Amino acid sequence: MTMFNALLKKLMNRGNDDSKNVAKKRLKFALVYDKLEIKEEMLEDLQKDLIEVISRYFEIDRDQVMLDIERSEESSALIMNTPILAARHKKPAHKSSRM
Amino acid sequence: MDGKIVVVTSGKGGVGKTTVAASVAAALALQGKRVAVVDMDIGLRNLDVIMGLENRIVFNIVDVVQGRCKLKQAMIKDRRINNLYLIPASQSDEKNVIKPENMQWLCKRLRKEFDFTILDCPAGIEQGFKNAIEAADEAIVVCMPEISSVRDADRVIGLLYSRSIEPKLIVNRIIPKMVERGDMLSHQDVVDVLSIDLIGLVETDEAVVVSSNTGLPIVMQKDSKAGKAFTEIAMRMNGHPDLPVEDPMAPKSFWKKIGSKIGRKNKVQS
User: Which residues of B touch A34 (CB under 8 A)?
Assistant: First the structure.
């Protein structure tokens, strides 16, 4: 890069590529990521609870249920995927839904 | 008397906890308070050498909580500064020989005798940390303007909040020239990320190394920038919470000033 280009780049993009800005961005991401870290057992418990609730309304294939946390730089999402076999037309009495 | 228990912590090691604990304690004592400093780093004691009191240790904190000596016997009086006492850590025990209930008992007694008890917390967030925060009323989190230190500080701040302690932040070892060049997180960046209140900014100061070499408190060295910063931190803890925090800036040369006026950054061209 010529001196002129370097200067132009500096004027156009003042300070954005400073190493401290890189550090700050990485830091913010790391902190968000750290806070989303949960224990594997917690995810398993959540999966069990979710299956129980959904089973009150739908007949589902329990072995096909997928639960995961997806993280990207902008956002994080809890993703659940389950095939539905049939809807339960009669709403079961609360808590009595276990097959 | 009903004194305060203040824990100095950081998560990460090597960011200056012990220096902060020793210096702030010395400054508080110089301001006329009765102060005890307790080394909570069982097995890796260091506060004694930083304070220059290492050759006067007879008993330590483990002896006190296990009843082998009286509290008074384990307190080492600093002969240079009135009303400053050190309770050293044990070098031969494990961190978990002290239990949280021991700390409750110890701090209850220290509260009665001292205006301030400063607990120098070990690095990490295990038993030693848990012991140190067990009976604390206030906390100072020390961090360096550097990515891993800030991350660990954030973790520790979360743990303190969960114990209803609202910590104050010291950003330590700032290098103003690097901040100005854009190669070091500024204290504003750190505060922005951690979102807690500042209690002081300390720039890197060679006098701190000299002070630890000799065991002479940095706050007694009049021309030291770090010493001055620690003295001011002690004042903020000691009834002057609104004393403004000075922003350490690199001294600007004439040409640099002109340069910054026209919006050009002074940095090495790539």
Answer: 151, 154-155
